[in-house]
Amino acid sequence: MKTYLIGIGLLFLSISVSFAQSGVEQEIKELSKAKWQWMADKDVGKLEPLFDDKSKFVHMSGTWKKDRELEVIETGSIWYKNAEVHDVAVEIFGETVILWNRITLQAVVRGDEVSNEFTVTEVYQKQDNSWRLLALTFSSVRDVHQIVH
């Protein structure tokens, strides 16, 4: 009987951990989707508290920190018009989450309209009950690329 109760307890524990992870996974997916929209809208007011003060952004043309990324977005130096998300994978590591998006990005870069396929790696960390973006990296890929789940 004791073994049976321990087994039932472990089953409930694994189910609750699974639901908690899927809840975090969904929360991060929704946050990432909102982030793409805020970038398209050039809404630095919503992006500023999301981006950690030490965050880094890796683009095809360079790497920079939070202040420069916000400036790039606000001035339209890069206008992220639309990120069409094709695939998403999420891994949870305690209070840190990594999200991979495979996207087609429609953007205006220094006045030129462009379309590129990317895998975008986003690293989030829970800090004081809210998620902060620590890193965002664009990796150029072909449209046949698939994210490993």
UniProtKB/TrEMBL annotation:
Domain DUF4440: 28-133
A Pfam family: DUF4440
Alphabetized UniProt keyword annotations: Signal
Keyword Signal among record annotations: yes
Signal sequence extent: 1-20
Name of this chain's protein: Nuclear transport factor 2 family protein
